[in-house]
Amino acid sequence: xxxxxxVGRQAELRTLSDAFEQARKxxxxxxxxxxxxxxxxxxxxxxxxxxxxxxxxHVLAGGCVELSTExxxxxxxxxxxRQLVREMGAAEVAALLPEGAARDLARLLPEFGEPSGExxxxxxxxxxxxxxxxxxxRLAERRPVILxxxxxxxxxxxSRDLIAFLSRNLxxxxxxxxxxxxxxxxxxxxxxxxxxxxxxxxxxxxxxxxPRLSESEVAAQIAGIRGDAPxxxxxxxxxxxxxxxxxxxxxxxxxxxxxSSVPDSxxxxxxxxxxxxxxDSQRVLRVASAGGNRVGHELLAAVTGLSDIDLENALRPAxxxxxxxxxxxxxxxxxxxIREAVHDEMLPGEHNRIHARFAEEIDxxxxxxxxxxxxxxxxxxxxxxxxxxxxxxxxWEAAAKAADAFAYTEQMQLLERVLSLWxxxxxxxxxxxxxxxxxxxxxxxxAAISGEIERGLKFVKGALAExxxxxxxxxxxxxxxxxxxLTIDRGRRGALPDLRYAERLVPAPSxxxxxxxxxxxxxxxFSNETDEGTVLTEEALQIxxxxxxxxxxxxxxxxLALGHSLAGDLEGALRTNERAMEAATELGNQRIxxxxxGNKVDALNNLGRSEEAVALALEGDALAREYxxxxxxxxxxxxxxxxxxESLGRWDEALEVIEQALALDPIPKIRGHxxxxxxxxxxxxxxxxxxxxxxxEVGALQNERDEYAQEWLTNLRxxxxxxxxxxxxxxxxDDVEEMLRVGDMPHSNKAMxxxxxxxxxxLTCEVAAAAHPERAREVWHRAQGxxxxxxxxxxxxxxxxxxxxxxxxxxAAAWQRLGRPYPRARSLTHAAAARAKAGDRDGAAARxxxxxxxxAGLRARPLMGEIEALARRVGVTVTAGPAAPVDASxxxxxxxxxxxxxxxxxxxxxxxxxxGELFISAKTVSxxxxxxxxxxxxSTRGEAAAAAHRLSLFT
Length: 955
Hints:
The chain is mainly alpha-helical. The protein is built from 48 helices and eight strands. Residues 881-892 have low confidence and may be disordered.
């Protein structure tokens, strides 16, 4: 019995309506709806979405199923895609995506054609996520979208990751996501708990915890069921027994008005409505319960062996009794709790037989289940039937299907099932065409891609224990390379010995040797062993050419260009990178094309061509969007773009790019670079806590040396900045000395690494000389010795070299030519000190005035303090510059984005309104507003608006 009257939940409806209204205003939002089983979550969502659809919303819905916990990946998203195809047709859906991108969706739904032939295991899943995000954004351009995902407590890992990804990246599109879950099933180790915690930290995400019905609401529900007002005694008894859970209220009302025979358990209460049905109906319901909450008519008929008429006759009483519902050509249990209760009533033998029948019938005709589900359905039923042979072979097939859909966590889980059943099936290897080591190899690959590092290492260890390197050296070599990568991903040292051993195992030219050399060469380059890394990469390149593997050749050319860049040969890097670009373009390989663009952006910035770097990065950004790879390759290009913006003194723009790139959830290496760059800006502005936080996030506060030189040198440099800001010259000197005394790793000749550090080494020695004169002199002597061995390959390195040698006026002029204001201001400050020491107070004052204006525009407070302190010592006055009360000279200090924000502030818009109009987050708007207030030297938004009009900033 279901009440036709919707009872209570008005506050929850208002929350959903408010969230949808927020989404309509171009600020995507999400609602997590939790409640007990039977608490009315689905009915609340249906009531809300029905009303929203009447106002023009496009409602898409999909649900997780219990089978998801066994390896059915992306079930809710596949259901939503299937709904879209029914509504629009596959061709129209595909037209919303970048050209060819729909082939990624074909991995979930065959209506989109043949999946792309590109596996790209490490980026495939991210690309699939991007296509789904892009599809939702394009749909929302037509009308607001509501995406409902039910029962996420059953969600598979891939679906949970995709939910988190969408929640982070759906920022300005008019999209509302509603996700329901059973809060009473979230035990402390439930995998959804950390996901919920992460989602609640995302801006625009709200949570509703659905309460139980009050006694008066239970009375209203009973009145709706009966059609008249119930007696107070009945209401009280039903309320006390049901405890306000709507499903239980309905079950109690089915037993009669007096509720005199109340069962001892809620399980008995739920099953009571089934037990009152005819025996034939109960038998069919038990069979149906093994098929899941929703089972097709044809499948159920095949499993039961009943004719269409007999099946319908058996189910008719269950449908009339509201135990089952009809949905097209399928039958659905009214509530999952009913299905669970019926399934639990089966006897052991009956349970096994029925699940085996489902497996047999689905295997006989795979069209009996929705497309893409047959393999995992068969694996589930054979496993539930406890048939070890067929459970193993079907799990093997389902694992391959999961890999095809980029559902690597689910692939790993299914392979673990194969491993657990291996000893129970004597001829397992012959049955599936793979040996035990092969299972471990595939499981280790899936674990590595999924980020399950410890499990991946366990699989590799098991595989290596079974292999003989004398007879199967290539397999051992591949596993050692994987173990090395897992070790790196784990953040531990020790990868290099595995890579070197792997190289010795495959001495003859072959595809295996080329793969090993590729990994070893790039590792050595990042460790600053660029000479050896380059030699090995060139050998791999020759092998690739001999094999005719053009794709590997293009990738290796990218790696070779990287080696040139890290060695300081930036012109060589550009030339080699161009060759890689030509090969990738001819191949049509979008991934490598974007990789070459990111590398070129970095090289241009290190050559001092930072404006070109920014422009190229924007082209790469547009190309990544066109390819449908923005969130795969975009973070890499965005990081290099942010570095160029930081170099140009466009710090606020750099911070905005960093925030947007971090929202893409990039790989750990890129995420670390972004956080270090955020720390660099924080150091320049004296934001000590933010700098320390950035260093903690990348693990730089521990005194462990990173095997990658780029990370290690940057960590050291930022730690020196932190020590100097904290007034700790001794520890700063320690870090400089650590870099200088390392004898087993040559110093980097790259401008923004080794040369920048040398300029900082001089500054540190000067600062530390007062407190630690002897050590400062010793460290300075070592620095001079290292400096003499370094090679410059461009104006940026030359400018840092001038800073190191104390030619500050020349350095300031060099930085001016390069358009880099912060190091120019630093050089002017040091030049001013030198002029003052020579007795040229006017020269010192002129330099300090210019330096202070630059520092004020950047809000580089530590440098401003240093300039002002020097001015006081010299006895000169420096003009206030941009930090003084507002005048016309303040206008140039506002970035184009800040001017846009200020214009909207002057119109009285809120931060959320501005975020929607400019397609950025409200948090970013808040940062811009704070910056504007600081630059205009005002304290309120109203004063900022008045200053903008007074200065005619918008004319």
